[in-house]
Design goal:
This protein has two domains: 112 residues, 3-Layer(bba) Sandwich (FAD/NAD(P)-binding domain), CATH 3.50.50.60; 38 residues, no CATH class. It has five helices and seven strands, in the order H-E-H-E-H-E-E-E-E-E-H-H. It is an alpha/beta fold and 159 residues long. The chain binds flavin-adenine dinucleotide.
Length: 159
């Protein structure tokens, strides 16, 4: 997902966005790919795509734009595997978890929207220097602001 949004990868053709986060990341990359001329489907194990967009009041806007951009939304499906089926094509096995039925989605590109690795160079540098240093928030694992606040308070109270 980040490779696409930062221009290191340029999907084309039929694109499947696999959204494991339910927030802006998956829907943003789906819109970005659709704006670039791709035929986009976004899938989620959740009951709706982008379920947490409700808390930022972005859910309605996403659905309107997705409709205008022709983005298809697949819900309640879990990716179980992926294989090359012909030159440049990938088949993703999707398990519809409420029924146990599996289907195959053939795409030119599969874009994963999942948790990212932290950017923790500064933490490593400080930890190696012998200074007592604690990690809170995104440097531990990129999540949301409340995690940084909760973990920061815990560390503060422990000192
Ligand atoms: C586009 C986007 C939208 C988001 N929307 C939401 C939202 O709606 N709600 C929500 O709760 N969360 C949201 N988040 C997540 C939220 O921003 C983060 O979880 C939160 O900012 C983490 O706080 P932090 O203090 O751990 O890290 P940061 O806020 O990233 O602060 C780390 C700081 O360290 C600095 N830094 C890093 N490396 C170095 C270095 N080597 N030397 C010096 N300085 C350095 C950085 O410049 C930065 O200022 C969003 C994130 C993004 C990217």
């Amino acid at each position: 997902m980040r490779d696409v949004l930062e221009g290191r990868a340029q999907p084309s053709g039929i694109v499947l966005v696999v959204d494991e986060l339910g927030f802006h990341q998956g829907t943003s990359v789906a819109e970005f790919a659709a704006d670039s001329g791709c035929v986009v489907t976004i899938c989620t194990p959740g009951m709706i795509v982008g379920q947490d967009l409700g808390i930022t009041l972005d859910f309605e806007g996403w659905n309107q734009r997705a409709h205008h951009k022709g983005i298809t939304q697949l819900t309640d499906v879990v990716p179980m595997g992926c294989e090359a089926v012909e030159v440049g094509k990938l088949a993703v096995t999707l398990l519809h978890h409420p029924t146990g039925q599996s289907s195959r989605f053939v795409a030119d590109w599969v874009v994963s929207s999942a948790h990212q690795r932290p950017e923790d160079e500064l933490w490593k540098e400080l930890a190696d220097s012998g200074i007592e240093v604690h990690r809170v928030g995104d440097v531990l694992a990129p999540r949301r602001a409340h995690s940084a606040v909760i973990e920061g308070e815990r560390v503060g109270l422990s000192l």
